[in-house]
Design brief:
Number of strands: 2
Shape: globular
Distance between the termini: 24 Å
Strand order of the largest sheet: 1-2
Structural class: mainly alpha
Length: about 280
């Protein structure tokens, strides 16, 4: 039976189905924007300003495919991403042109993403032991390899991720590009009916996600977050409201990856359907 590259026995299978992942995904973009090279690659190559929801949907779809899709589909999606990245170039502040698939940039994006996922979802009230957090980081080495990194060079534990951030910190800073992305994430330029949701989106997702960054990250951004107790309470209330929606309905967005995996795996999938807390490690 094809369980994909991860499967129901992994921490990833459970964690990535939690509704707090939507906030975590936005938080990861706030964090990623602090790397001048990574954010330049996004600003110079992405159409996020013309299609404000497109990049978020594509990123969520890729994460869903890798987490729950059958093996062949995972590798097809990864090949498309690698192929696209090979064609993209950006220019830094000194005028130097670089490839957006530079391994250092890929590693930053990966670490910022998975760190945001596990820390935000855990802060939202999802119970994870320290051992399970380390298992998650180790599992995510497989996803890093899909985009072109060497698995053994990717941090595979909470301590290794913390050490990575300590080493890369001197390279991070607020830039005009990071400000552009921050403003976009706080209030994307939506049109039509989706624009009506901006009044709720900005405080409940955009500003909340920013406030969930590590303190060193909000200090670099230079904008005041919600006070820590307020951010945590708002995050937990938002998650609790989302958990009131039946799982199969929640998991149908954006493309139903979890529901499809549960159906594909039959009895195994039903027994491993994502729960609110993991089994003991």
């Amino acid at each position: 039976m094809d369980v994909g590259i991860l499967g129901p026995a992994t921490v990833t299978w459970q964690l990535h189905a939690d509704p707090a992942m939507w906030v975590a995904g936005i938080a990861s973009l706030h964090l990623q924007s602090l790397h001048p090279g990574a954010v330049a690659g996004v600003v110079q190559n992405s159409d996020f300003r013309r299609d404000p929801l497109g990049r978020l949907r594509r990123t969520a779809s890729f994460v869903g495919t890798v987490s729950y899709g059958p093996t062949a589909r995972v590798h097809e999606a990864a090949a498309r991403v690698r192929g696209l990245h090979r064609t993209l170039r950006a220019t830094d502040a000194s005028g130097r042109t670089f490839r957006v698939d530079d391994p250092e940039l890929l590693l930053w994006v990966h670490c910022a993403e998975v760190h945001s996922f596990v820390e935000v979802v855990r802060r939202a009230g999802y119970r994870l032991t320290d051992a399970q957090v380390d298992r998650y980081y180790d599992e995510q080495r497989r996803t890093a390899a899909l985009v072109g990194l060497h698995e053994d060079e990717v941090p595979g534990s909470a301590r290794a991720v913390a050490d990575y951030f300590a080493g890369v910190l001197p390279e991070l800073r607020r830039t005009a590009d990071s400000e552009l992305v921050r403003r976009f994430l706080l209030r994307p330029p939506l049109t039509g009916p989706p624009r009506l949701a901006l009044g709720a989106y900005e405080p409940l997702l955009g500003r909340l996600a920013y406030s969930l960054l590590p303190p060193w990250a909000t200090a670099l951004h230079g904008h005041r977050p919600y006070p820590e107790p307020v951010a945590t309470a708002l995050l937990r209330a938002t998650r609790a409201a989302a958990l009131a929606v039946p799982g199969p309905i929640r998991w149908s967005v954006p493309e139903g990856h979890v529901n499809e995996a549960v159906r594909r795996l039959g009895r195994l999938g039903r027994h491993a359907a994502p729960r609110r807390a993991l089994l003991p490690s």
